[in-house]
Amino acid sequence: WETQQVLVTEESFDAQYYVAHNKYYEQVLVPKRSEFKGKMIEVEIFEAGKHFLKGRPLDGSEVFTPSIAEPLQKGEVSGLTQEQLSLQQNGSVPSSGVLTASWSPWSLDREGLKLLSISLAVVAILVVFMWEKLH
Q1: What is the dihedral of CA 80, 82, 86, 91, to 10 degrees?
Q2: Does 111 score more than 90 pLDDT?
Q3: Ranges for the TRAM domain (predicted)?
Q4: Residue 10, pLDDT score
Q5: Could you give the CA distance from residue 2 to residue 4 in angstroms, rounded to a whole number?
């Protein structure tokens, strides 16, 4: 038997267990208890299969959140400026309907992506046309 610290990340496909990962990113199946989701727990490995391990929580082991910062409360959004947060709380959302931290040429909305796609298609057609004319 071996004890390991694991991070519980998701529900198993058969919905009977939670899936956790140890420091080697091996899958460890643990009992499905709501207080485990998103937490680190210490388990005793009692079974091993080809693609998984099974672990049972150690009695008296602490369940904790592996984070430097406090977890966000339900409904709380990270990365918003105070101005954006107050707009959201007042119900005033920009016309795009999206709150963004700042504009970047690498972050495009749906319309920007559509325009970029059309532009690239036109450029590709022009390149093919020019290639045909030159050869």
Answers
A1: -20
A2: no
A3: 1-59
A4: 93
A5: 7
Tally of structural domains, the chain: 1
Residue 104, domain member (yes or no) = no
User: Which pLDDT value is given to residue 95?
Assistant: 47
Q: What is the DSSP letter of 81?
A: -
- Can you read off the two tokens belonging to residue 15? 């919905």
- 42-66 as b/e: b if 16+ CB within 10 A: bbebeeeeeeebbbebeeeeeeeee
Residue 134 host element (H or E) = helix 110-134
CATH number for the domain harbouring residue 11: 2.40.50.140
What amino acid is encoded at 105 in this protein? P
Local structure of 25: helix, strand or coil: coil
Q: 37 is in which domain, residue-wise?
A: 2-57
